[in-house]
Specification:
This protein is of the alpha+beta class. The chain is built from 5 helices and 12 strands. The protein binds biotin.
Length: about 260
């Protein structure tokens, strides 16, 4: 279980005010993103951090689930109001990927790669994912930024066993320190969403730029080269027929040349 006092102390040492961020910590939830949605429906205060030691129905992108066993991972959602358009959800996700990458480097020295859009990879295995959701009602526009990190999770269901891995298999990373550092890295962007300084690192840490990839648009599957990431975080892919496509959502698969 995340130790709330330790988290508060790690936040204070990084000058992140625990009185600004409401902390909601649970032993187990269906999903921290789903709980954040319920909090919005109940009209609860923001910004908030929703944490769970385990999730019974952790959610990933594209309707997938996110394996979230107790005690071995870091699963949380940040809930905050935003004046930005819901369309900025792509850049929020991409900026968050850079913030998580920087935080991992600062607390552990480990360098992870970013697979467009938002997956963090170490040694060709996915070690973290991000699910950003935007909620618009008549009162307020909220973002829910859900982050799941496989810290020492070593055993995965058979369908994930060849693609998922642990970031810190020996359990050395202090979860509270990592979460507080992620907030430290992310807060400047939340305060200044127009700041695009994360883009350079998003590009340089990319595991897909220059590589052969496969993607789907509607029901059409194409292959080609991932050429560029534009200023909004969209991926520019050159199909084998020479056509340039701009991908702002969806998923790509790395192919061998
Ligand atoms: C993905 O890999 O497609 C995104 C995974 C996001 C998982 C995190 S864990 C905390 C938060 N709550 C959820 O249900 N999902 C996100």
């Amino acid at each position: 279980m995340i130790n709330k006092e330790r988290l508060v102390s790690e936040m204070l040492s990084r000058k992140i005010s625990p009185s600004v961020w409401q902390i909601h910590a649970f032993d187990e939830l269906d999903s921290t993103n789903t709980e954040a949605r319920r909090m919005v429906a109940r009209g609860e205060a923001t910004p908030a951090i929703v944490l769970a030691d385990a999730q019974s129905n952790g959610r990933g992108r594209m309707g997938r689930s996110f394996f979230s066993p107790g005690g071995t991972g870091l699963y949380f959602s940040l809930l905050f109001e935003s004046a930005q358009s819901p369309k900025t959800v792509l850049s929020v996700t991409s900026a968050a990927a850079v913030a998580v990458r920087r935080a991992i480097r600062r607390v552990s020295g480990i360098e992870v790669g970013i697979k467009w859009v938002n997956d963090l990879y170490l040694n060709d295995k996915k070690v973290a994912g991000i699910l950003a959701e935007s909620l618009l009602d008549s009162e307020r526009h909220c973002f829910i930024l859900g982050i799941g990190i496989n810290l020492s999770t070593a055993e995965f269901p058979s369908d994930l066993a060849s693609t998922a891995g642990c970031l810190d298999c020996h359990g050395r990373i202090v979860r509270e320190a990592l979460l507080a550092e992620i907030l430290t890295q992310l807060c400047p962007y939340l305060e200044h969403p127009e700041d695009r300084s994360w883009l350079d690192e998003y590009r340089s840490a990319s595991t897909v730029l220059g590589r052969r990839v496969r993607w789907m648009q509607g029901s059409v599957t194409s292959e080609g080269i991932a050429e560029e990431i534009d200023s909004l975080g969209s991926l520019l892919v050159r199909g084998d027929d020479g056509t340039l496509s701009v991908l702002s959502t969806g998923e790509i698969t790395l192919r061998r040349c």
